[in-house]
Write a structure and sequence with these properties.
CATH superfamily of chain B: Phosphohistidine domain
Helix content of chain A: 25-40%
Structural class of chain A: alpha/beta
Number of helices of chain A: 13
Number of domains of chain A: 3
Largest interface: A-B, 41 and 35 residues
Order of helices and strands of chain B: EEEHEEEEEHEHEHEE
Order of helices and strands of chain A: HEEHEHEHEHEHEHEHEEHEHEHEEHEH
Radius of gyration of chain A: 21 Å
Helix content of chain B: 25-40%
Number of strands of chain B: 12
CATH topology of the largest domain in chain A: Aconitase, domain 3
Shape of chain A: globular
Strand order of the largest sheet of chain B: 1-10-9-7-2-11-12
Largest sheet of chain A: 5 strands, parallel
CATH topology of chain B: Glucose Oxidase, domain 1
Structural class of chain B: alpha/beta
CATH class of the largest domain in chain A: Alpha Beta
Distance between the termini of chain B: 5 Å
CATH architecture of the largest domain in chain A: 2-Layer Sandwich
Oligomer: heterodimer
Shape of chain B: globular
Strand content of chain B: 35-45%
CATH architecture of chain B: 3-Layer(bba) Sandwich
Number of strands of chain A: 15
Number of domains of chain B: 1
């Protein structure tokens, strides 16, 4: 299609066909588009060509646009880097997206531009979509990567039930209030596993801590397809439709359910013998928060295992050269704009991954075929302190 | 066990009748991670090329649309995708890849599953879609 149509004609055509397929006959203007699918590992040469052709054809993003993080091309793992040709193609994708008008590269676009209540967005990236709808009270479809790209060009998307605030819950879950990031993450993942294609209404979540809510929603995003997870005490009422008294199903998730699930996927070995990569920041941490984390990280013992800890952040963290070197001596790297989940980590020689994110746990074994386990951030730090 | 099941066309086929070997997967597919466009396989080793692929639906990453598009680019397109619930990510992928997409009710999905599980493990059968009806002749 892209060979004959201008970028704008292509975008209109794609959105039109998608709306038709969804049975929607009107569009809605958006103020912010967020594009997923920018890792060369995921979209390959055809994705690169699509994005490049949009720019060379005269395309320019019409609305404020951000994009997901890209493959880890800006560092090595224990001296090993990605192949030069992959690095070059990845930077080409980033270059053309920037030329089209992308303002930043992160899976946490809400840290670059916080959505306002009732604002219409065209966001891909499931954790961001879920946070926009379920927490900020904004409105976005769970766009596919290419449809968000097309919406960025024309500034509108299909006016679905979620945009109208009419999407109603179909199942109800009484859940235990999660106490830490692993419990929150496990809870989100389990809800999605139970109801991958439903719109859940969740009672019992009292946490207001954004980090826990982000963990919960990101994990749900990996195991389900809904654009919203309604948390009765968090999600603004106007973002969803009527709650029927006759829902498809009702369920209860207890502390034991969470503990059992976490136990199955936790890393129990205290003696790491492999080239282990620790990942914190999936989804990306706010860079301001990482400045506080520095105080903890600088106290770690010098790297005594054949491991590294990658802390993923939404934007660059203002650390001095001395501070960066000090962290490096402890095997710690703070990385902005990139994502190990969308990187083939086996190319780095990584043999094992330990993370506090169920989202990373979901994807890394599938994409990189590397054994992956969960551990809370506190436990990771304890382990890396060598105590 | 001839079976006729009613479908709803989401991305309609340009051909009046499409036929292919039926592949039934009783779970959702996380296109990112589960679908390999280069090899034309899903869940590691199940071939999808020229198949009528029936599964619960897509979950997970919004990059999934690119993975479905990749099936077309790599010449590994299925004949059709049939899900119990279509979502934007799947629809976008099917539209761009030019793969017909249909919805099957959850009850009919279960009926199909019963027929398959009572037919043994090495069950292989061709299925045709015409006028929004899935026909299976066993």
């Amino acid at each position: 299609m892209s060979n004959v149509l201008s970028p704008y004609e292509l975008a209109k055509e794609v959105i039109n066909r998608v709306c038709n397929a969804l049975g929607i006959n009107e569009v809605v203007n958006v103020v912010h588009a967020h594009i997923s699918g920018i890792s060369y590992f995921n979209i390959g040469d055809y994705g690169l060509k699509l994005i490049k052709d949009l720019y060379l054809g005269g395309g320019k993003f019409k609305v404020y646009t951000t994009a997901n993080p890209y493959a880890v091309v800006n560092t090595d793992f224990r001296g090993l880097r990605l192949d030069e040709s992959i690095i070059n193609k990845q930077y080409e994708i980033v270059k053309y997206l920037t030329l089209l008008g992308a303002k930043g590269f992160t899976c946490a676009p809400y840290f670059i531009r916080e959505p306002k209540p009732n604002e219409h967005l065209a966001w891909a990236e499931s954790n961001a979509v879920l946070l926009a709808n379920s927490y900020y009270g904004a409105k976005t479809n769970r766009e596919g990567g290419p449809s968000a790209l097309m919406s960025a060009l024309v500034g509108y998307t299909c006016n679905s039930e979620i945009h109208k605030g009419n999407l109603s819950p179909t199942v109800e879950i009484k859940a235990i209030n999660p106490r830490n990031e692993l419990e929150a993450s496990a809870l989100g993942y389990l809800i999605g596993k139970l109801y991958p294609h439903e719109v859940p209404y969740v009672l019992g979540i009292k946490v207001k801590d954004l980090e826990l809510i982000r963990s919960l929603l990101a994990a749900f995003g990996a195991s389900a397809s809904s654009p919203i997870l309604i948390l009765d005490s968090v999600t603004p009422k106007y973002t969803y439709g009527e709650v029927s008294s006759d829902l498809l199903d009702k369920n209860i998730l207890t502390t034991n359910d969470l503990r059992r699930f976490i136990k199955d996927v936790a890393h129990h070995d205290r003696e790491l013998r492999k080239d282990t990569l620790f990942i914190v920041g999936c989804p990306h941490l706010k860079s301001d928060d990482v400045i506080k984390l520095y105080e903890v990280l600088k106290e770690l013992s010098p790297a005594k295992y054949s491991s590294e800890l990658w802390v993923l952040v939404h934007d660059s963290v203002p650390l001095s050269n001395y501070e960066v070197k000090l962290l490096a001596s402890k095997g710690v790297k703070i990385l902005e704009h990139v994502c190990p989940v969308v990187t083939r980590l086996s190319d780095f020689g990584v043999e094992e991954v330990i993370t506090n994110s169920f989202k990373a746990l979901h994807y890394i074994p599938k994409i990189s075929k590397i054994p992956t386990y969960v551990m809370s951030f506190k436990e990771i730090i304890k382990l890396l302190r060598g105590k | 066990m001839p079976l006729r099941l009613r479908l709803k066309a989401i991305v309609p086929s340009k051909e009046r009748r499409i036929c292919g070997e039926l592949v039934f997967i009783n779970k959702p597919i996380s296109y990112l991670g589960d679908l390999d466009p280069k090899r034309g396989t899903v869940l590691n080793d199940v071939s999808v090329k020229n198949k009528v692929l029936v599964y619960l639906g897509g979950i997970g990453s919004t990059v999934g649309s690119y993975k479905i598009l990749g099936l077309n680019i790599e010449g590994n397109k299925p004949k059709a995708l049939i899900v119990t619930k279509s979502d934007v990510v799947t629809v976008v992928g099917a539209v761009l890849a030019d793969i017909p997409l249909y919805e099957l009710s959850r009850d009919d999905f279960s009926r199909l599953e019963d027929v398959i599980s009572s037919s043994g493990r090495n069950w292989s059968v061709s299925a045709c879609i015409e006028d929004e009806v899935l026909s299976i002749d066993g």
